[in-house]
Amino acid sequence: MKFRAIRDSIGRFTVSLMCAALGVSTSGYYAWRDRRPSPRTQANVRLLNQIREAHQRSRCTYGSPRITHELRAQGHRVGENRVAELMRTAQIRARSARKWKATTQSAHRLPVAENTLGRAFSVAQPNRVWAGDISYVWTAQGWLYLAVVLDLYSRAVIGWAMGERLTAELATQALTMALWRRKPHRGLLHHSDRGIQYAAGDYQRLLATHGIDCSMSRKGNCWDNAVVESFFHTLKVELVHHRRYLTRDEARQDIFEWIEVFYNRQRRHSTLGYRSPAEFEATGKVA
Which of 7, 170, 195, 253, by CA, is between 20 and 30 Å from 102? Predict the structure, then answer.
């Protein structure tokens, strides 16, 4: 520690003066300065550089578990404890969360469906269970609402829509995109909260037209739709809370890029064996 303090103060004081003040020899300082780092130290420096690069590629969103899987996917043999220690020492952290509010409007008299999903979030095949929900993003022009549909098999966002009003049409647009992209067979189960956007006639008719069964969360129970709630939490933590949008169009573009480029195709998901939704759908489940 004394030698390091001397090195950090070069230019302010002479080496001989600092060595005398700290009670060490000048020859000892120069021997320490010229000593080559140990192989372990050199390896840690290289690994830390790789960690920084992986953290940047993740848009500063990955903690040590995802960073570890990212490095292993690149062929590096590394343990999570070592990665965590290096990240802690270098103060490399994943982005943290903020609180946010719900958008469910369940004070209506429209028919609601039973919760037939029953929190069975693990699905064996694609296009067997979808889940939808709506959240919001603040901009200087006012709120921007985001409706999404996820395939619970891969957690992929297969339909989305954004607008300045919280309407049933917004939810219907997201479902329409999912139907156009996936063209599912009849018998698919669709789960949502019991908000008016999902209980509305147009939305229910669209489900019925395509032979889709409807499931809704119990009143006031956000855990019944936990997968989509988790998606919105990730969106807010990793993107929205670190932005200040001047316009809705600016937010739309940013969210579109995050969903289609990063989340669906790059972001490693712990539930999927640290693979992206696209990679998971291409390769199948972990044995």
Answer: 253
